[in-house]
Amino acid sequence: MAAKAESREREVKLLSARNDQYGGVIVDINGDEHRPCYLFIISDLLNCALEGAVQGKKGVWIKLPIERVNLVEAAVKKGFWYHHAEPNYLMLMYWIPQSAHTLPANATHRVGIGAFLINHNRESGQYRGTGVWKLPTGVVDEGEDIFAAAVREVKEETGIDSEFVEVLAFRQSHKSFFQKSDLFFVCMLRPLSFDIQKQEHEIEAAKWMPFEEYAAQPFVQKYELLRCIHDICKAKMDGKYTGFSPVPSTSYTVQKSYLYLNTSTAPRRESKL
Amino acid sequence: MAAKAESREREVKLLSARNDQYGGVIVDINGDEHRPCYLFIISDLLNCALEGAVQGKKGVWIKLPIERVNLVEAAVKKGFWYHHAEPNYLMLMYWIPQSAHTLPANATHRVGIGAFLINHNRESGQYRGTGVWKLPTGVVDEGEDIFAAAVREVKEETGIDSEFVEVLAFRQSHKSFFQKSDLFFVCMLRPLSFDIQKQEHEIEAAKWMPFEEYAAQPFVQKYELLRCIHDICKAKMDGKYTGFSPVPSTSYTVQKSYLYLNTSTAPRRESKL
Lengths: 273, 273
Fold this sequence. Notes:
2 copies of one chain form a homodimer.
Chain A: H1 2-14, E1 17-19, E2 24-28, H2 38-50, E3 59-65, H3 72-77, E4 81-86, E5 89-95, E6 109-117, E7 123-128, E8 133-134, E9 137-139, H4 146-158, E10 162-177, E11 180-191, E12 205-210, H5 211-215, H6 218-222, H7 224-237, E13 245-250, E14 256-261
Protein backbone atom coordinates (compact mmCIF):
# COMPACT_ATOMS: atom_id res chain seq x y z
CA MET A 1 0.00 0.00 0.00
CA ALA A 2 2.83 2.41 0.86
CA ALA A 3 4.49 1.70 -2.47
CA LYS A 4 1.21 2.22 -4.27
CA ALA A 5 0.60 5.55 -2.54
CA GLU A 6 4.14 6.67 -3.29
CA SER A 7 3.72 5.73 -6.91
CA ARG A 8 0.53 7.75 -7.12
CA GLU A 9 2.13 10.73 -5.48
CA ARG A 10 4.87 10.62 -8.07
CA GLU A 11 2.30 10.53 -10.86
CA VAL A 12 0.52 13.54 -9.45
CA LYS A 13 3.83 15.38 -9.43
CA LEU A 14 4.19 14.62 -13.12
CA LEU A 15 1.30 16.99 -13.70
CA SER A 16 1.88 20.72 -13.48
CA ALA A 17 -0.50 21.46 -10.63
CA ARG A 18 -0.93 24.78 -8.85
CA ASN A 19 -3.22 25.98 -6.07
CA ASP A 20 -6.27 28.09 -6.76
CA GLN A 21 -7.75 30.64 -4.34
CA TYR A 22 -10.74 28.46 -3.44
CA GLY A 23 -8.95 25.57 -1.73
CA GLY A 24 -8.52 23.56 -4.89
CA VAL A 25 -5.73 22.52 -7.18
CA ILE A 26 -5.54 23.30 -10.91
CA VAL A 27 -4.06 20.70 -13.21
CA ASP A 28 -3.04 22.15 -16.55
CA ILE A 29 -2.79 19.35 -19.06
CA ASN A 30 -0.85 20.87 -21.89
CA GLY A 31 0.01 19.51 -25.27
CA ASP A 32 3.39 18.05 -24.28
CA GLU A 33 3.63 14.76 -26.15
CA HIS A 34 6.41 13.47 -23.90
CA ARG A 35 4.16 13.19 -20.85
CA PRO A 36 3.08 9.67 -19.92
CA CYS A 37 -0.41 8.38 -20.57
CA TYR A 38 -2.78 11.14 -19.48
CA LEU A 39 -5.80 8.91 -19.42
CA PHE A 40 -4.17 6.88 -16.67
CA ILE A 41 -3.12 10.01 -14.82
CA ILE A 42 -6.56 11.62 -14.80
CA SER A 43 -8.01 8.47 -13.38
CA ASP A 44 -5.28 8.14 -10.83
CA LEU A 45 -5.20 11.81 -9.92
CA LEU A 46 -8.78 11.58 -8.86
CA ASN A 47 -8.08 8.50 -6.76
CA CYS A 48 -5.21 10.36 -5.12
CA ALA A 49 -7.46 13.32 -4.43
CA LEU A 50 -10.11 11.13 -2.89
CA GLU A 51 -7.58 9.35 -0.73
CA GLY A 52 -6.26 12.66 0.49
CA ALA A 53 -2.99 12.46 -1.38
CA VAL A 54 -3.74 15.98 -2.60
CA GLN A 55 -3.68 17.13 1.00
CA GLY A 56 -6.37 19.44 2.27
CA LYS A 57 -7.69 20.23 -1.18
CA LYS A 58 -11.42 20.51 -1.75
CA GLY A 59 -11.49 20.52 -5.51
CA VAL A 60 -9.54 19.51 -8.58
CA TRP A 61 -9.63 21.53 -11.82
CA ILE A 62 -8.48 19.99 -15.06
CA LYS A 63 -7.82 22.28 -18.02
CA LEU A 64 -7.92 20.23 -21.20
CA PRO A 65 -6.82 21.84 -24.48
CA ILE A 66 -9.11 20.89 -27.36
CA GLU A 67 -6.32 18.67 -28.74
CA ARG A 68 -6.86 16.51 -25.65
CA VAL A 69 -10.58 16.02 -26.36
CA ASN A 70 -9.97 12.26 -26.13
CA LEU A 71 -9.66 12.64 -22.31
CA VAL A 72 -12.98 14.44 -21.76
CA GLU A 73 -15.13 11.34 -21.58
CA ALA A 74 -12.79 9.61 -19.12
CA ALA A 75 -12.80 12.65 -16.83
CA VAL A 76 -16.61 12.97 -16.86
CA LYS A 77 -17.00 9.27 -16.16
CA LYS A 78 -14.75 9.76 -13.13
CA GLY A 79 -17.16 12.39 -11.80
CA PHE A 80 -15.75 15.63 -13.23
CA TRP A 81 -18.22 18.17 -14.64
CA TYR A 82 -17.88 21.09 -17.02
CA HIS A 83 -17.06 24.47 -15.50
CA HIS A 84 -16.50 26.57 -18.63
CA ALA A 85 -15.08 26.35 -22.12
CA GLU A 86 -13.39 28.65 -24.58
CA PRO A 87 -12.75 27.77 -28.25
CA ASN A 88 -9.44 26.08 -27.47
CA TYR A 89 -9.98 24.44 -24.10
CA LEU A 90 -12.46 22.89 -21.68
CA MET A 91 -12.19 23.39 -17.91
CA LEU A 92 -13.44 20.48 -15.82
CA MET A 93 -14.00 20.41 -12.09
CA TYR A 94 -14.26 17.82 -9.35
CA TRP A 95 -15.47 18.77 -5.88
CA ILE A 96 -14.28 16.41 -3.13
CA PRO A 97 -16.42 17.22 -0.03
CA GLN A 98 -19.95 15.89 0.30
CA SER A 99 -21.22 19.45 0.83
CA ALA A 100 -22.37 21.77 -1.96
CA HIS A 101 -19.47 23.35 -3.79
CA THR A 102 -18.47 26.98 -3.14
CA LEU A 103 -16.72 27.59 -6.41
CA PRO A 104 -17.23 30.74 -8.45
CA ALA A 105 -19.82 30.52 -11.19
CA ASN A 106 -18.93 30.92 -14.81
CA ALA A 107 -19.06 34.37 -16.43
CA THR A 108 -22.69 35.45 -16.78
CA HIS A 109 -22.66 38.67 -18.78
CA ARG A 110 -21.61 39.95 -22.13
CA VAL A 111 -20.80 43.66 -22.20
CA GLY A 112 -21.45 46.07 -25.07
CA ILE A 113 -21.14 49.79 -25.75
CA GLY A 114 -22.99 52.37 -27.81
CA ALA A 115 -21.10 55.59 -28.60
CA PHE A 116 -22.50 59.11 -28.80
CA LEU A 117 -19.91 61.14 -30.65
CA ILE A 118 -20.91 64.80 -30.88
CA ASN A 119 -19.05 67.48 -32.85
CA HIS A 120 -19.19 71.25 -32.38
CA ASN A 121 -22.18 71.55 -34.73
CA ARG A 122 -24.32 69.25 -32.55
CA GLU A 123 -23.93 66.54 -35.16
CA SER A 124 -23.40 62.97 -34.10
CA GLY A 125 -21.24 60.40 -35.87
CA GLN A 126 -23.55 57.76 -37.34
CA TYR A 127 -23.30 54.78 -39.61
CA ARG A 128 -25.95 53.08 -41.71
CA GLY A 129 -26.18 49.34 -41.28
CA THR A 130 -29.48 47.95 -42.55
CA GLY A 131 -31.11 51.09 -43.93
CA VAL A 132 -31.19 52.79 -40.54
CA TRP A 133 -28.73 55.35 -39.16
CA LYS A 134 -27.23 54.07 -35.92
CA LEU A 135 -24.76 54.93 -33.23
CA PRO A 136 -21.50 53.02 -33.36
CA THR A 137 -21.90 49.96 -31.15
CA GLY A 138 -19.86 46.92 -30.33
CA VAL A 139 -18.84 44.25 -27.88
CA VAL A 140 -16.32 44.85 -25.09
CA ASP A 141 -13.60 42.23 -25.45
CA GLU A 142 -12.41 40.03 -22.62
CA GLY A 143 -9.91 42.06 -20.61
CA GLU A 144 -10.82 45.36 -22.31
CA ASP A 145 -11.88 48.52 -20.46
CA ILE A 146 -15.29 49.94 -21.34
CA PHE A 147 -13.84 53.35 -22.24
CA ALA A 148 -11.20 51.73 -24.46
CA ALA A 149 -13.83 49.61 -26.24
CA ALA A 150 -15.91 52.73 -27.00
CA VAL A 151 -12.92 54.56 -28.53
CA ARG A 152 -11.95 51.43 -30.51
CA GLU A 153 -15.44 50.83 -31.92
CA VAL A 154 -15.81 54.46 -33.01
CA LYS A 155 -12.48 54.22 -34.83
CA GLU A 156 -13.38 50.89 -36.43
CA GLU A 157 -16.81 51.96 -37.64
CA THR A 158 -16.24 55.62 -38.62
CA GLY A 159 -12.46 56.18 -38.78
CA ILE A 160 -12.77 58.95 -36.18
CA ASP A 161 -10.23 59.34 -33.35
CA SER A 162 -11.95 60.26 -30.10
CA GLU A 163 -11.57 60.59 -26.37
CA PHE A 164 -13.93 59.14 -23.81
CA VAL A 165 -16.07 61.56 -21.77
CA GLU A 166 -18.43 59.45 -19.66
CA VAL A 167 -20.95 56.65 -19.31
CA LEU A 168 -24.36 58.30 -19.72
CA ALA A 169 -26.42 55.27 -18.71
CA PHE A 170 -26.37 51.49 -18.88
CA ARG A 171 -28.92 48.80 -19.49
CA GLN A 172 -29.03 45.27 -18.15
CA SER A 173 -31.03 42.68 -20.08
CA HIS A 174 -31.34 38.92 -19.85
CA LYS A 175 -31.28 35.87 -22.10
CA SER A 176 -29.66 37.92 -24.80
CA PHE A 177 -27.63 34.96 -26.01
CA PHE A 178 -28.38 31.43 -24.84
CA GLN A 179 -29.00 32.00 -21.13
CA LYS A 180 -26.49 34.81 -20.70
CA SER A 181 -27.25 38.37 -19.59
CA ASP A 182 -26.08 41.58 -21.19
CA LEU A 183 -24.83 44.95 -19.93
CA PHE A 184 -24.91 47.75 -22.48
CA PHE A 185 -23.15 51.04 -21.69
CA VAL A 186 -24.21 54.23 -23.48
CA CYS A 187 -21.06 56.36 -23.73
CA MET A 188 -20.37 59.97 -24.67
CA LEU A 189 -17.17 60.63 -26.65
CA ARG A 190 -15.46 63.77 -27.91
CA PRO A 191 -14.13 63.58 -31.49
CA LEU A 192 -10.45 64.39 -32.02
CA SER A 193 -10.60 64.06 -35.81
CA PHE A 194 -13.47 64.89 -38.15
CA ASP A 195 -12.93 63.06 -41.44
CA ILE A 196 -15.65 60.42 -41.13
CA GLN A 197 -15.81 57.41 -43.45
CA LYS A 198 -17.09 53.88 -43.37
CA GLN A 199 -14.45 51.37 -42.38
CA GLU A 200 -16.03 47.95 -42.65
CA HIS A 201 -17.61 45.97 -45.46
CA GLU A 202 -20.91 45.47 -43.64
CA ILE A 203 -21.35 49.23 -43.18
CA GLU A 204 -23.25 50.99 -45.98
CA ALA A 205 -22.23 54.54 -45.08
CA ALA A 206 -21.00 56.77 -42.26
CA LYS A 207 -21.56 60.50 -41.80
CA TRP A 208 -22.01 63.41 -39.41
CA MET A 209 -25.73 63.87 -38.97
CA PRO A 210 -27.70 66.54 -37.11
CA PHE A 211 -28.68 64.94 -33.85
CA GLU A 212 -32.36 65.77 -34.33
CA GLU A 213 -32.36 64.03 -37.72
CA TYR A 214 -31.11 60.83 -36.11
CA ALA A 215 -33.71 61.10 -33.34
CA ALA A 216 -36.56 61.68 -35.82
CA GLN A 217 -36.14 58.27 -37.47
CA PRO A 218 -39.21 56.04 -36.93
CA PHE A 219 -36.80 53.35 -35.72
CA VAL A 220 -35.71 55.59 -32.83
CA GLN A 221 -39.18 56.92 -32.06
CA LYS A 222 -40.64 53.44 -31.91
CA TYR A 223 -38.71 52.23 -28.89
CA GLU A 224 -38.98 53.66 -25.40
CA LEU A 225 -35.36 52.73 -24.70
CA LEU A 226 -34.01 54.65 -27.70
CA ARG A 227 -36.21 57.68 -26.94
CA CYS A 228 -34.97 57.65 -23.36
CA ILE A 229 -31.33 57.47 -24.49
CA HIS A 230 -32.04 60.30 -26.92
CA ASP A 231 -33.41 62.46 -24.08
CA ILE A 232 -30.29 61.82 -22.01
CA CYS A 233 -27.96 62.67 -24.88
CA LYS A 234 -29.83 65.87 -25.62
CA ALA A 235 -29.70 66.87 -21.94
CA LYS A 236 -25.96 66.13 -21.98
CA MET A 237 -25.42 68.31 -25.06
CA ASP A 238 -27.28 71.09 -23.28
CA GLY A 239 -25.02 70.72 -20.23
CA LYS A 240 -27.89 69.48 -18.05
CA TYR A 241 -26.87 65.88 -17.40
CA THR A 242 -23.97 64.13 -15.72
CA GLY A 243 -23.04 60.47 -15.99
CA PHE A 244 -20.17 58.37 -14.63
CA SER A 245 -16.52 58.97 -15.51
CA PRO A 246 -13.69 56.46 -15.01
CA VAL A 247 -11.16 57.16 -12.27
CA PRO A 248 -8.13 54.88 -11.94
CA SER A 249 -8.01 53.13 -8.60
CA THR A 250 -5.94 50.48 -6.91
CA SER A 251 -7.40 47.85 -4.63
CA TYR A 252 -6.33 44.63 -2.88
CA THR A 253 -4.15 43.71 -5.79
CA VAL A 254 -1.50 45.85 -7.43
CA GLN A 255 -3.59 45.68 -10.59
CA LYS A 256 -4.99 49.01 -11.78
CA SER A 257 -8.71 49.15 -12.38
CA TYR A 258 -11.23 51.92 -13.02
CA LEU A 259 -14.04 53.13 -10.80
CA TYR A 260 -16.83 54.84 -12.76
CA LEU A 261 -18.59 57.51 -10.72
CA ASN A 262 -20.36 60.86 -10.89
CA THR A 263 -17.28 63.09 -10.67
CA SER A 264 -19.34 66.28 -10.80
CA THR A 265 -20.71 65.64 -7.31
CA ALA A 266 -18.14 63.26 -5.82
CA PRO A 267 -15.67 64.93 -3.47
CA ARG A 268 -12.01 65.38 -4.47
CA ARG A 269 -11.99 63.00 -7.42
CA GLU A 270 -11.33 63.81 -11.02
CA SER A 271 -11.42 61.65 -14.08
CA LYS A 272 -7.85 61.01 -15.16
CA LEU A 273 -7.62 58.69 -18.13
CA MET B 1 -26.83 10.17 -55.00
CA ALA B 2 -30.40 11.49 -54.80
CA ALA B 3 -31.38 8.68 -52.45
CA LYS B 4 -28.31 9.37 -50.32
CA ALA B 5 -29.10 13.08 -50.08
CA GLU B 6 -32.72 12.31 -49.22
CA SER B 7 -31.61 9.89 -46.54
CA ARG B 8 -29.34 12.54 -45.04
CA GLU B 9 -32.06 15.13 -45.08
CA ARG B 10 -34.30 12.75 -43.18
CA GLU B 11 -31.58 12.20 -40.61
CA VAL B 12 -31.14 15.93 -40.12
CA LYS B 13 -34.86 16.20 -39.51
CA LEU B 14 -34.54 13.59 -36.78
CA LEU B 15 -32.64 16.18 -34.80
CA SER B 16 -34.53 19.02 -33.17
CA ALA B 17 -32.88 21.87 -35.04
CA ARG B 18 -33.85 25.55 -34.87
CA ASN B 19 -32.44 28.69 -36.44
CA ASP B 20 -30.31 31.12 -34.49
CA GLN B 21 -30.10 34.86 -35.13
CA TYR B 22 -26.66 34.69 -36.72
CA GLY B 23 -27.47 32.64 -39.81
CA GLY B 24 -26.78 29.32 -38.16
CA VAL B 25 -28.77 26.33 -36.99
CA ILE B 26 -28.83 24.99 -33.42
CA VAL B 27 -29.03 21.25 -32.89
CA ASP B 28 -30.14 20.34 -29.40
CA ILE B 29 -29.10 16.77 -28.70
CA ASN B 30 -31.12 15.83 -25.68
CA GLY B 31 -31.03 12.74 -23.59
CA ASP B 32 -33.76 10.87 -25.45
CA GLU B 33 -32.63 7.26 -25.53
CA HIS B 34 -35.00 6.39 -28.36
CA ARG B 35 -33.17 8.51 -30.89
CA PRO B 36 -31.01 6.63 -33.39
CA CYS B 37 -27.23 6.54 -33.14
CA TYR B 38 -26.13 10.13 -32.45
CA LEU B 39 -22.54 9.49 -33.35
CA PHE B 40 -23.61 8.70 -36.89
CA ILE B 41 -25.91 11.71 -36.97
CA ILE B 42 -23.27 14.20 -35.85
CA SER B 43 -20.97 12.98 -38.55
CA ASP B 44 -23.69 13.04 -41.16
CA LEU B 45 -25.15 16.36 -40.07
CA LEU B 46 -21.85 18.00 -40.77
CA ASN B 47 -21.65 16.40 -44.20
CA CYS B 48 -25.16 17.66 -44.92
CA ALA B 49 -24.19 21.14 -43.79
CA LEU B 50 -21.10 21.15 -45.96
CA GLU B 51 -23.06 19.92 -48.96
CA GLY B 52 -25.56 22.70 -48.48
CA ALA B 53 -28.35 20.45 -47.26
CA VAL B 54 -28.79 22.87 -44.37
CA GLN B 55 -29.65 25.55 -46.90
CA GLY B 56 -28.06 28.95 -46.59
CA LYS B 57 -26.75 28.29 -43.12
CA LYS B 58 -23.32 29.53 -42.11
CA GLY B 59 -22.86 27.64 -38.89
CA VAL B 60 -24.01 24.62 -36.95
CA TRP B 61 -24.31 24.59 -33.15
CA ILE B 62 -24.50 21.32 -31.26
CA LYS B 63 -25.63 21.40 -27.64
CA LEU B 64 -24.47 18.22 -25.93
CA PRO B 65 -25.74 17.43 -22.43
CA ILE B 66 -22.98 16.06 -20.21
CA GLU B 67 -24.61 12.63 -20.41
CA ARG B 68 -23.65 12.68 -24.11
CA VAL B 69 -19.96 13.26 -23.37
CA ASN B 70 -19.19 10.23 -25.54
CA LEU B 71 -20.00 12.34 -28.64
CA VAL B 72 -17.63 15.23 -27.86
CA GLU B 73 -14.53 13.65 -29.37
CA ALA B 74 -16.34 12.70 -32.59
CA ALA B 75 -17.67 16.25 -33.00
CA VAL B 76 -14.25 17.84 -32.44
CA LYS B 77 -12.61 15.44 -34.89
CA LYS B 78 -15.20 16.55 -37.47
CA GLY B 79 -14.04 20.15 -37.01
CA PHE B 80 -16.38 21.44 -34.30
CA TRP B 81 -14.85 23.61 -31.56
CA TYR B 82 -15.98 24.59 -28.08
CA HIS B 83 -18.11 27.71 -27.77
CA HIS B 84 -19.07 27.60 -24.10
CA ALA B 85 -19.95 25.15 -21.34
CA GLU B 86 -22.10 25.10 -18.25
CA PRO B 87 -22.00 22.35 -15.61
CA ASN B 88 -24.53 20.20 -17.46
CA TYR B 89 -23.79 20.81 -21.13
CA LEU B 90 -21.16 21.70 -23.73
CA MET B 91 -21.99 23.89 -26.74
CA LEU B 92 -19.99 23.12 -29.87
CA MET B 93 -19.85 25.14 -33.05
CA TYR B 94 -18.95 24.58 -36.67
CA TRP B 95 -18.52 27.51 -39.06
CA ILE B 96 -19.07 26.63 -42.72
CA PRO B 97 -17.69 29.60 -44.75
CA GLN B 98 -13.96 29.97 -45.36
CA SER B 99 -14.10 33.49 -43.90
CA ALA B 100 -13.57 34.31 -40.21
CA HIS B 101 -16.66 33.60 -38.13
CA THR B 102 -18.94 36.44 -36.99
CA LEU B 103 -20.49 34.62 -34.03
CA PRO B 104 -20.96 36.24 -30.66
CA ALA B 105 -18.18 35.63 -28.16
CA ASN B 106 -18.79 33.78 -24.94
CA ALA B 107 -19.79 35.73 -21.81
CA THR B 108 -16.78 37.74 -20.62
CA HIS B 109 -17.79 39.27 -17.30
CA ARG B 110 -18.90 38.20 -13.87
CA VAL B 111 -21.00 40.80 -12.05
CA GLY B 112 -20.97 41.52 -8.33
CA ILE B 113 -22.58 44.00 -5.94
CA GLY B 114 -21.61 45.70 -2.69
CA ALA B 115 -24.47 47.13 -0.61
CA PHE B 116 -24.47 50.33 1.44
CA LEU B 117 -27.41 50.05 3.76
CA ILE B 118 -27.82 53.18 5.89
CA ASN B 119 -30.33 53.62 8.70
CA HIS B 120 -31.64 56.88 10.18
CA ASN B 121 -28.75 57.08 12.67
CA ARG B 122 -26.16 57.13 9.87
CA GLU B 123 -25.25 53.58 10.76
CA SER B 124 -24.52 51.08 8.02
CA GLY B 125 -25.37 47.38 8.03
CA GLN B 126 -22.11 45.45 8.26
CA TYR B 127 -20.98 41.89 8.73
CA ARG B 128 -17.70 40.50 9.97
CA GLY B 129 -16.13 37.87 7.76
CA THR B 130 -12.45 37.36 8.52
CA GLY B 131 -11.98 39.73 11.43
CA VAL B 132 -12.89 42.79 9.35
CA TRP B 133 -16.27 44.57 9.16
CA LYS B 134 -17.48 44.60 5.60
CA LEU B 135 -20.37 45.68 3.43
CA PRO B 136 -22.66 42.91 2.27
CA THR B 137 -21.38 41.74 -1.11
CA GLY B 138 -22.22 38.99 -3.54
CA VAL B 139 -22.44 37.73 -7.07
CA VAL B 140 -25.28 38.65 -9.44
CA ASP B 141 -26.78 35.41 -10.72
CA GLU B 142 -27.35 34.66 -14.36
CA GLY B 143 -30.64 36.32 -15.34
CA GLU B 144 -30.82 38.40 -12.15
CA ASP B 145 -31.21 42.19 -12.08
CA ILE B 146 -28.50 44.14 -10.27
CA PHE B 147 -31.00 45.83 -7.94
CA ALA B 148 -32.60 42.47 -7.10
CA ALA B 149 -29.22 40.91 -6.34
CA ALA B 150 -28.37 43.75 -3.93
CA VAL B 151 -31.64 43.33 -2.00
CA ARG B 152 -31.18 39.53 -1.94
CA GLU B 153 -27.59 39.65 -0.68
CA VAL B 154 -28.48 42.10 2.11
CA LYS B 155 -31.28 39.78 3.22
CA GLU B 156 -29.06 36.70 3.04
CA GLU B 157 -26.17 38.22 4.98
CA THR B 158 -27.94 40.40 7.56
CA GLY B 159 -31.62 39.36 7.59
CA ILE B 160 -32.63 42.95 6.73
CA ASP B 161 -35.39 43.71 4.22
CA SER B 162 -34.48 46.68 2.06
CA GLU B 163 -35.34 48.64 -1.05
CA PHE B 164 -32.92 49.64 -3.73
CA VAL B 165 -32.02 53.34 -4.06
CA GLU B 166 -29.28 53.63 -6.68
CA VAL B 167 -25.96 52.51 -8.11
CA LEU B 168 -23.37 54.87 -6.60
CA ALA B 169 -20.44 53.73 -8.75
CA PHE B 170 -19.10 50.67 -10.48
CA ARG B 171 -15.68 49.20 -11.02
CA GLN B 172 -14.41 47.12 -13.92
CA SER B 173 -11.42 44.86 -13.33
CA HIS B 174 -9.75 42.14 -15.36
CA LYS B 175 -8.45 38.60 -14.96
CA SER B 176 -10.43 38.23 -11.77
CA PHE B 177 -11.10 34.55 -12.41
CA PHE B 178 -9.25 32.63 -15.10
CA GLN B 179 -9.23 35.16 -17.94
CA LYS B 180 -12.64 36.69 -17.18
CA SER B 181 -13.35 40.31 -16.28
CA ASP B 182 -15.46 41.61 -13.43
CA LEU B 183 -17.98 44.43 -12.98
CA PHE B 184 -18.69 45.40 -9.36
CA PHE B 185 -21.62 47.74 -8.61
CA VAL B 186 -21.62 49.75 -5.38
CA CYS B 187 -25.29 50.13 -4.45
CA MET B 188 -27.18 52.25 -1.91
CA LEU B 189 -30.17 50.60 -0.20
CA ARG B 190 -32.78 51.81 2.26
CA PRO B 191 -33.56 49.40 5.11
CA LEU B 192 -37.22 48.41 5.61
CA SER B 193 -36.56 46.33 8.72
CA PHE B 194 -33.98 46.91 11.45
CA ASP B 195 -33.46 43.64 13.33
CA ILE B 196 -29.99 42.74 12.05
CA GLN B 197 -28.47 39.30 12.58
CA LYS B 198 -26.01 37.03 10.90
CA GLN B 199 -27.63 34.55 8.54
CA GLU B 200 -24.87 32.31 7.26
CA HIS B 201 -22.37 29.94 8.84
CA GLU B 202 -19.34 31.68 7.36
CA ILE B 203 -20.36 35.03 8.87
CA GLU B 204 -19.00 35.74 12.36
CA ALA B 205 -21.35 38.60 13.21
CA ALA B 206 -23.60 41.29 11.76
CA LYS B 207 -24.50 44.67 13.25
CA TRP B 208 -25.42 48.29 12.66
CA MET B 209 -22.21 50.26 12.89
CA PRO B 210 -21.57 54.01 12.81
CA PHE B 211 -20.41 54.71 9.30
CA GLU B 212 -17.27 56.52 10.52
CA GLU B 213 -16.28 53.47 12.57
CA TYR B 214 -16.41 51.28 9.47
CA ALA B 215 -14.39 53.80 7.49
CA ALA B 216 -11.72 54.10 10.20
CA GLN B 217 -10.67 50.46 9.92
CA PRO B 218 -7.07 50.10 8.66
CA PHE B 219 -8.41 47.68 6.05
CA VAL B 220 -10.55 50.48 4.54
CA GLN B 221 -7.92 53.19 4.88
CA LYS B 222 -5.28 51.09 3.20
CA TYR B 223 -6.92 50.88 -0.21
CA GLU B 224 -7.56 53.82 -2.50
CA LEU B 225 -10.63 52.10 -3.94
CA LEU B 226 -12.29 51.64 -0.53
CA ARG B 227 -11.45 55.20 0.53
CA CYS B 228 -12.95 56.47 -2.71
CA ILE B 229 -16.13 54.44 -2.18
CA HIS B 230 -16.27 55.74 1.40
CA ASP B 231 -16.10 59.34 0.14
CA ILE B 232 -18.95 58.71 -2.30
CA CYS B 233 -21.13 57.09 0.37
CA LYS B 234 -20.51 59.95 2.78
CA ALA B 235 -21.38 62.50 0.09
CA LYS B 236 -24.54 60.51 -0.64
CA MET B 237 -25.53 60.49 3.06
CA ASP B 238 -25.03 64.26 3.08
CA GLY B 239 -27.28 64.65 0.01
CA LYS B 240 -24.39 65.79 -2.18
CA TYR B 241 -24.08 62.92 -4.61
CA THR B 242 -26.28 61.29 -7.23
CA GLY B 243 -25.77 57.94 -8.89
CA PHE B 244 -27.78 55.91 -11.39
CA SER B 245 -31.30 54.60 -10.71
CA PRO B 246 -33.03 51.83 -12.66
CA VAL B 247 -35.92 52.79 -14.95
CA PRO B 248 -37.91 50.02 -16.67
CA SER B 249 -37.69 50.26 -20.43
CA THR B 250 -38.80 48.22 -23.43
CA SER B 251 -36.71 47.83 -26.54
CA TYR B 252 -36.68 45.75 -29.74
CA THR B 253 -38.04 42.79 -27.87
CA VAL B 254 -41.15 42.67 -25.68
CA GLN B 255 -38.83 41.77 -22.82
CA LYS B 256 -38.66 44.33 -20.02
CA SER B 257 -35.21 45.53 -19.04
CA TYR B 258 -33.82 48.32 -16.89
CA LEU B 259 -31.91 51.39 -17.92
CA TYR B 260 -29.76 52.82 -15.09
CA LEU B 261 -29.31 56.58 -15.35
CA ASN B 262 -28.92 59.79 -13.36
CA THR B 263 -32.59 60.52 -12.77
CA SER B 264 -31.84 63.73 -10.87
CA THR B 265 -30.70 65.47 -14.05
CA ALA B 266 -32.34 63.37 -16.79
CA PRO B 267 -35.50 64.93 -18.24
CA ARG B 268 -38.93 63.45 -17.50
CA ARG B 269 -37.75 60.12 -16.11
CA GLU B 270 -38.27 58.74 -12.69
CA SER B 271 -37.06 55.56 -11.11
CA LYS B 272 -40.01 53.20 -10.83
CA LEU B 273 -39.05 49.83 -9.48
